[in-house]
From TrEMBL:
GO BP, sorted A to Z: nicotianamine biosynthetic process
SUPFAM superfamilies: S-adenosyl-L-methionine-dependent methyltransferases
Official protein name in the record: Nicotianamine synthase
Pfam families: NAS
Organism for this UniProt entry: Oldenlandia corymbosa var. corymbosa
Protein role: Synthesizes nicotianamine, a polyamine which serves as a sensor for the physiological iron status within the plant, and/or might be involved in the transport of iron.
Enzyme class: transferase
Reaction equations catalysed: 3 S-adenosyl-L-methionine = nicotianamine + 3 S-methyl-5'-thioadenosine + 3 H(+)
Keyword NADP attributed: no
CDD domains for the chain: AdoMet_MTases
Family, similarity comment: Belongs to the nicotianamine synthase (NAS)-like family.
GO MF, one example: nicotianamine synthase activity
Amino acid sequence: MVCQKDALVQTISELYDQISSLESLRPSKDVDMLFTQLVLTCIPPNPIDVTKLCNKIQEMRSKLIKLCGVAEGLLEMHYSTILGNSFGGVDGENPLDHLTIFPYYNNYLKLSLLEFNILSQHITNIPNRVAFLGSGPLPLTSIVLAKNHLTQTSFHNYDIDPMANAMASKLVASDCDLSRRMFFHTRDVLDVTCEFKDFDVVFLAALVGMDKEAKLGFIEHLAKNMSPGAILMLRSAHGARGFLYPIVDPCDLKGFEVLSVFHPTDEVINSVVIARKLPDMATLMPLMPSSNNIHCGGNHVILPCKCADLQGFNPLSKLNMIEELAADDRLV
């Protein structure tokens, strides 16, 4: 009898073979069908730990994540082009009024609400300046947060692709409010240093760093350059969803206090990790009793005393998700 894990891996491997044989990952009937099947296969909650599968499957997973990243970028570019060309520049038309044509728009509404509610649990003041790293040609998270939740906040969107920024900028140009609060920077995130000191919150997109080594490089760079007390919001994945996006282990966030990790169980694919930038560890650690630390492979991540305290926070209770303590199985 084939176990659930073996059946899942076999199905995903077959889909990978079909996807990798496509001539193009641009939106089309075949591309849409295969990626829809892939997502539907990975959505159901599954106890599988994809990081512990054999090397052959790990190699396949790594390639599949990169294919998903390329396809996602092409999908956003496709719809950004439609929105910009069909509605941009037309008298009285605002492309942002037609975002519902994007097939996963409702997912972004749910994910942005989740991230806003999580953020609200850990900050006392509305952030003045937010950075979103890896915003792309259709910066839906920034747009939804700016329009629906953080209506006075300025958003600085960073992307290494000048075409992506040009397309995104065109979309918000017709919106009187967002055109004054949303900015686009064509930069390699690793070249941005002191600017990060100015942000209250930094969002790191799921596909900024599509393998563990690259992701750790971005996290280390942010740890060196963000201001102490600033919030880092990362997107991760859990269970079978780790075949679609990189997984961020809370113990990888050196220099940050991991506050909470949330795993949606509905059609919202990404997990959300929220962390706070710590002061320099060399000055902080002597002041802390050892019993308040989590030990992870020789490194320390601070476990906040209210890490799992979500009781009474009604907006989150309406969402289907699992909330776990950061590194809860590593307490010493």
